[in-house]
Sequence to fold (159 residues):
Amino acid sequence: MRLGIISDTHGTLPNEVFDIFGRVDHILHGGDIGGLDLLIELEALAPVTAAYGNTDGFDIRHRCPRVAKLELDGFYVTVTHGDQFGMPDPQVLHESFPEADIIVFGHTHKPLLELVDKTVTVMNPGSAGAPRGGTPASVGIMELEAGIPPRARLVPLGR
Fold:
């Protein structure tokens, strides 16, 4: 299973995302979406599981949970924006969601891949729509296959 990982779009969906996510089976959005129209655009590509972020309005909060949990190819996945932890780090996320094999989050606008024994366990794709501090906009791709450790990479946008 191929996943598109995105966060912190803040209402902006760069055209590159459509090419990068063109062959994904599922999209995980780590919050600060920016509007239902953006979710609808992503849903045209693949099913979307999203968590709301601290800047999302009532329309998104009505549709998306603060923390989304699902199972994909035998992996327990948690998606959260992470703002409930201040500026979250992998240790806090693991302690908060001990049942999760994979945790996707946002909020920091800083891309992050945490590997434990070459297994992706925590991923922040960075910000696709509102990069900060000189960090380029980015998204992520993750490959899941039952019985094999998850593989993931960050994909910079705007090159």
